[in-house]
Amino acid sequence: MKFDHVGIIVSDLSSGREHFSSVYGIKEWTKEFCDEINGVYVQFCIDGSGICFEVVAPIDKNSPVYNVIGKGVNIINHMAYRVENIEEKAIDLYDNNFISLGEAKKAVAYKMKKIQFFYSKDLNYLLELIESSNHKHEYYELDR
To answer: Considering only CA atoms, which of 12, 9, 31 is closest in space to residue 108?
Structure first.
């Protein structure tokens, strides 16, 4: 597995960008992605130490992350890793007391490669697998 990002839930991408830019000095961002398949808007940024964050905002009230905003829980939502094959890695996760949170779906931000979320019953956290082991985010400098 190769680390990809930490997912952070925000009410909208603009406020997420403003927060990360102001607080952490982040200037490099990808383009915005509207992912109707998964019900979210996403954008990625990278900090000075090379850590990638994904800001995730709900498209509408039916979005899987919509309730996170209202409840104010699980804002730091998930860790994501790139893998060669989700089905093969899922076997390891099931053996380590993870459960799937649904079927694998294509994701716009990953050029329609599959993603799938899993929940650790032991440690109560979410893990996203991305079936695109060599994916590279394309960043540009954000003018403030």
So the answer is: 31
